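Morning - zinc ion inputs below, output right after.
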Amino acid sequence: MEASKNKIVKITAIVLAAMIFITAAVLSGFAIAGSVRVSNAEKMSVNYDGEKLNVILMIGDGMGFNHIKAAEAEYGRLFFANEADYAGEVTTFSRNVFGPTDSAAAATALATGHKTDNGHVGQYRGKDLKSTTEIAVELGMSTGIIATEGVDGATPAGFSAHTASRNNLDEIIKDQLTSGVNLYFGSNAVRYAPMKAEISKSYAYVDNIADIPTAGDKIFAAFEEIPLVADGASKPSLAMLATMAIDILSQNENGFFLMIEESHIDKCSHDNDLSGALEHVKAYDYAVKAVVDYAEKLGNTIVIVTADHETGGLQYNGESKDELSDGMYTKGSHTSANVPFFVFGDIDYDLDNITDNTMIAKLCQAVISAK
Ligand SMILES: [Zn+2]
């Protein structure tokens, strides 16, 4: 990635705040006793040339380290994110101490930098938590949310809504339509079709890629499906949608924040369907490469690749492609295993190799606020 170091902006205040938050969090005891759950964030700074700065956060729902290793065995090549400038592990625990996080609490942590209880979306005990998306909107940046499920799923909702339960789908869509987010790309067209009139009051509503405006303020796209390989205008691939989104969002001279989720690694892993999960890891990998290639072309763009939690307790012990099996799953639920993070971009990044998911939000917010 092109280095531009005319101006170096140190984000020490933000990191200090993050350290105080994490220290307070640990002292207040919401971490499970007996395990070290957060790292010491020493410093973080962003090299920045004074022009616009973009952040793309990519989340593989349910994707642990072993999902990546198994996908590498299946497809005979390394996961593209291995080429990142920085990499490490993320702790994923929520405020619920008796089990692993769900996607709502994890998305809230990744979006706002605050822990919450499982099921809650952008809120902690009834109080709204400000997300990176909202900060970006306030800064006059363009914003986009992409998911391979409906955009009312827990992960995209965590970046665009505030509600006490991930099941409050009507509240989530209501929040999303007034959020100021420029672009929603997701699937589940069947669910959204009856809402077309309502959505069309504030967004250009489309259900196929041929109708996506090349520019424009607000676009809400609900596709039939977002498969590994595009299959006609109503079934685009994630990589294709990510590229189209960047085309549109990068027209804003104030920069953009884009969240992209591959939602189905989790769903297949709940079913212990390894080949299904690995197909989606592959789709995510394609999207990561497309996004990083585009980011390098744009310059001034940080790409963070991570997951919200691990699903299925997937074991991997060097199995070859032919030896991969559904039996490598040990659970049908989420686990507390750390998940990977990768950062592509010209930043001085000095977090420990093991950090917390709230620090991903702090990093996104530090970068978009660094101008
Ligand atoms: Zn799940």
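Note: The first helix runs from residue 12 to 27.

O.
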